[in-house]
Amino acid sequence: MTDTQLANTRDMYMIHTLLLREFGAMAALVRGVPDGDTERVGIVVEHIELVADLLHHHHNAEDVHIWPKLLARLPEATAPLVRTMERHHRAIEVLNDDLGTALTAWLSTATGGAAVAAILDELVPLLTEHLVTEEDEVLPLIGRCVTAAEWEEMLADASSGLDPATVPLLFGMLEYDADPEIFRMTVDQLPAELRPVIHDLAGKAYAAHSERLHGTATPPHAPRPDRV
């Protein structure tokens, strides 16, 4: 693989930062909704479902495209880590499913937000542990044996199941805490007809979404673990 361009995994930090920021703020958002406020419940549920769906597709793409390649190409170095990543994914997916069920119940009754918040209290520490481990230990190994083309295939698969109408907002979520160079690099990999749309709409979409969700177009930035 020495003559093949290897994956540049810098964009993964951008995705992880989005997840840390959005999931980290969710429990407080949920607890701030009074019982019976159906409009506010709908706003918060829509947001959580959007980010939870992003997480599901992101992890599924890693399961399909990345872990098998690591095991085949660097088995001794990656086997324990891949098993940890797979275990984390399974546990996170169970909690994500539980979260979806609790959100449906909350949306239908406008009561029961405490059950949603309790699941988030369990999910967020596990998700944080998973993302930190992946950044510290797995991404360097991906950079040694996964090609740039294979990496792009994984990212494309992760985005393929998302609602196209949400793409500007999701890119706005990415951009909010992103290194501008990495964000430009990511947008430049999109089809040519989408690039101006993303550049024009992403920031505006997230600002409007945040105003509706948080009461400000500039919510707190992502908490990052101390070692980053």
Task: List the keywords.
228 residues, mainly alpha, Four Helix Bundle (Hemerythrin (Met), subunit A), 9 helices, globular
Task: Give structural notes.
The protein has about 230 residues and is mainly alpha-helical. The chain has a single domain (about 10-215), classed as Up-down Bundle (Four Helix Bundle (Hemerythrin (Met), subunit A)). About 80% of the residues lie in helices and about 0% in strands. Helix 2 packs antiparallel against helix 4 (about 75-110). The longest helix has about 35 residues, at about 75-110. The radius of gyration is 18 Å and the shape is globular.
Can you identify the CATH class? Mainly Alpha
Number of helices: 9
The CATH topology corresponds to Four Helix Bundle (Hemerythrin (Met), subunit A)
Helix content: over 70%
How would you sum up the major sheet? Answer: none
Work out the strand percent.
under 5%
Shape call: globular
- Span between N and C termini? 30 Å
- Unreliable spans: none
Q: What does the radius of gyration come to?
A: 18 Å
Number of strands: 0
CATH architecture descriptor: Up-down Bundle
Number of domains: 1
H and E string? HHHHHHHHH
What's the short version?
The protein is an all-alpha fold and 228 residues long. It has 9 helices and no strands. The longest helix is centred in the middle third of the chain and has 35 residues.
